[in-house]
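ERR on first pass: missing label on line 2. Operator R.T. fixed the label and resubmitted. Corrected input:
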Amino acid sequence: MKKKLAALCLLSLALVTIFTGCSKSKDNTDNTKGEKAKIRFASWDVAEDVDRQQALVDKFNAAHEDIEVTLEAYGRDFDTKISAGMGSGDAPDVMYMWNYPAYFEGLEPLDGYIEKEGESYKSNFYETLWNYNAINDQIYGIPIGFTTHALFYNKDIFAEAGVAEPTADWTWEDLKAAAKTITEKTSAVGFTFQMKPDPYDFEMYLWSNDTAFCDKDGKLDGNLNSEKSQEVFQMFQEMEKEGYALASEKSGTDEFRSGAVAMYVYGSWAISSLKEDNLNYGVATIPAFANAGKDSVSILSSSGISMSKDSKNKDAAWEFIKFWTNEEANKERIGLELPVLNSVVESEKIMEQPEFAPFYVMLEQSKGYTPASFIIKEWSEISENLSLSFEEIFNPSVLQNPSDVLNNAVQQ
Amino acid sequence: MKRKKFIRKATPYFFITPWIIGFLVFTIGPLILSLGMSFFDWPLTSEPVFRGFGNYIEMFTKDAQFWKSLKISLKYAAIFVPLNMGIALFLAMLITQPIKGVKIFRTIFYIPAVISGVAVSIIWGWILNGDYGALNYLLSLIGIEGPRWLVDPAWALFAVIFASAFGVGTMMLIFYTNIKSIPITVFEAASLDGASPARQFFSITLPIITPTILFNLITSIIGSFQQVTLVMLLTGGGPLKSTYFYGLYTYNNAFKHHKLGYASANAWVMFIIILILTALVFKSSSTWVFYEAEAKKENKKRRGGNK
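pass 2 clean. output:
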């Protein structure tokens, strides 16, 4: 029952090295016989989603006599397995990818391939997405799906409290006022946010208030602890202190689904479960900061598809990537992911669906921002420290002073 | 003739080769390799660089989290091991009582041990939830306002300890089989002499099962240092890193921060700590563990001396 750490760590760490030896001997045998080009494709999806992907892969295999793609569904272990695979030179040829800063050194730059497809290939993707699939101006992945964040609200609770529903030009002041009224008049709490937000996600609020975690050289001091940044943290903490916002132990979805809170900010992931519940909910863009004088900005959680730089069949791999990112595949994945192609969004009339449109509005508003994780080299450690700092500000059993915490965080 | 002899001698080894190979490739091999890795700066995507004892020096001198995590793990072990053994022994005593339906209880007590760690964490995540969890609801019935177990840093470690004590069944079973093997005649003789049940427990049961206690003590010390599933899924090391166990620290260094060499060094330090603790327990065991065979030998010697 207890996972044996020795087994887990020692074993997998060292297996990596053992397999390095194995993979090297394989080099000469593959590939030379004029057989089918074998492509391994790693996905992080689980359950029914994998079945749908397998159907798509089968379709590709049927149409290509000279290529055979095998789907490897890594699920929850995706990162661990990709790490181990890259460490041993045995990474899958094609893989889903999101954490480019950590893995880009093991990936094939795709700019050359994209150029060959012509300008219209690239411009059909939403522009904002490329920034999230590139490192140092080099593209390492073709966008597959994305979500921005948006404000979910419970229409029934709003009606019960007699408060007007959120609109596109709401500011945080409007949200606070609504949350206050709702908390007073109904049994629900007005708003919830994460007690332990992922720093990657939280940076969007700083962007919306015209600041960021760091400058373009990755320096935190003067940015993370700037006045504007402190303002953001103070605002959230005050809402919590005054009792009309709840700091959620998880994402806030559970509280929202059960009707315990009236509003929360989250990605489009929540939609399928909210639909299942038949919850009477609406989606709006994230409120803006009144003093910032601009629309709110959202972080993108984006997924792409990448090629391993060690792949032996790069042309076949690219052929498959193209198939996986074409219009038909985008349409197949609707419901699983928000489509990334302008033409698909148009032909499927997605902008006319009120629960999806705000995510695209947020996407348009979020052009030109680069998350700190793409700038700071040691992001995974910095992120862990930031996460702890944010928790110190939002955990109800401590609620430390934001400016102290942030100044401290900068020193680390 | 000679060949026949060789084959006869070698046959058993042929049969165990698969396990020997498995042991060499999957246990000893990785063990040695990870020792080697611990002397390298071993990132994931680029080439490893040798840095001697650099990882170990960094760990002991620069990394505050190392000491914090070590302290948390020691604290956890110090509370969890005795508690777990106490509960296991208590339950084992209960299920050895000649009561009707004892088999049902035996099953009930053992069932949690067969549930996977992931499921246990999810179940306890619900039970311990501060706002709508079952535990705080039950506490509210007797007028106690429960803490927010997984949010308050002061309580989170205890929450993890409760949740781990859930898997007490295996240890209980080991105690149980040992207690069951004690000849009933010993107890009968004792009760004829007027020993109370408590007296019987302390003077007969406990001394006889000391070898089993030793075994359980060592395995649970090792287990508690290796605890990682539960904290990873139940608390994620939080709140405020109050349950950032050493195991989780090592795991995160390897698979989150991709510092494979450093994590190997972490793992080896833990290995050495466990080794020392186990050695200490073994050393002390001569004073409190009672082996029947030894006692008989001593008796014989004594008799010999009396002559």
